[in-house]
Specification:
- There is one protein chain.
- It contains five helices and seven strands.
- It has helices at about 5-30, 35-45, 75, 90-95, 150-180; strands at about 100-105, 115-120, 125-130, 135-140, 185-190, 195-205, 205-210.
- It has a seven-stranded antiparallel sheet, covered by helices on one side.
- The longest helix is centred in the C-terminal third of the chain and has 34 residues, at about 150-180.
- The chain starts with a helix and ends in a 9-residue tail after the last strand.
């Protein structure tokens, strides 16, 4: 008959050996099957990398592109024009066409009382003349490359009228100044064709040309 103490010791020894062998077999199986540990890593490294440059939707938007507006100033300069003085308002307005609306309570460049003459309907790209005791201002819509073809066409027509009127007021130098404006040049405090230009620029959908009538023909600084 077995000694109960010896039986208990023998059973405990057999169980310990079984656990040890089981652990060895598990380690051996893992070594023979390396894919078990690398599966998650391979899933990560094999995931295709998306290039935001080739997939612009990743950042939610793409840069708008359009065709730049071209102004044929070379052809405009070939037209003959008659000279005008800055105080010949009726003749100046006739160059821009029919007045669609008049605001007698407007302000000029320096916030002085002035009259604004608009030559386009309210919902169309604007073409304006603002006249005060001191300033004559020309303003028109400056189209963006992403604008519609119609908006670009109107912007070109506005620029052509401003070019023509500038030549009438300041000679060929006036036309050249408008061409410079359309090429993003800013003119300040300069005498052009005998007229004092306070400011001339085209940016942010707007062109403005401000002539200081009080300084015309007298300020040679």
């Amino acid at each position: 008959m077995w000694n109960p103490n010896l039986q208990t010791l023998l059973v405990g020894t057999i169980m310990a050996v079984g656990v040890t062998l089981s652990g060895c077999d598990s380690t051996k199986d893992d070594a023979q099957n390396p894919d078990v540990e690398t599966t998650s890593e391979q899933a990560t490294t094999n995931e295709p990398v998306q290039d935001s440059a080739n997939n612009p939707d990743l950042d939610g938007a793409t840069a708008q592109q359009g065709t730049p507006v071209r102004y044929d100033v070379a052809a405009w300069g070939a037209d003959k024009v008659e000279s005008l003085a800055v105080d010949e308002l009726d003749n100046i307005k006739s160059v821009f066409g029919e007045v669609m609306s008049t605001d007698e309570n407007s302000l000029d460049y320096a916030s002085n009382p002035a009259a604004k003459y608009r030559f386009m309907k309210t919902d169309a790209p604007y073409l304006d003349i603002i006249d005060s005791e001191k300033y004559l201002e020309l303003g028109w819509y400056y189209a963006n490359p992403t604008d519609t073809d119609k908006e670009k066409e109107l912007s070109q027509n506005h620029a052509k009228k401003a070019y023509q009127l500038s030549r009438q007021l300041m000679g060929d130098d006036g036309g050249k100044m408008v061409a410079d404006m359309l090429n993003s040049q800013i003119i300040k405090n300069r005498i052009v064709g005998g007229q004092k230009i306070e400011l001339a620029k085209c940016e942010f959908y707007s062109c403005m040309l401000v002539i200081n009538k009080a300084a015309a023909q007298t300020d040679n600084s």
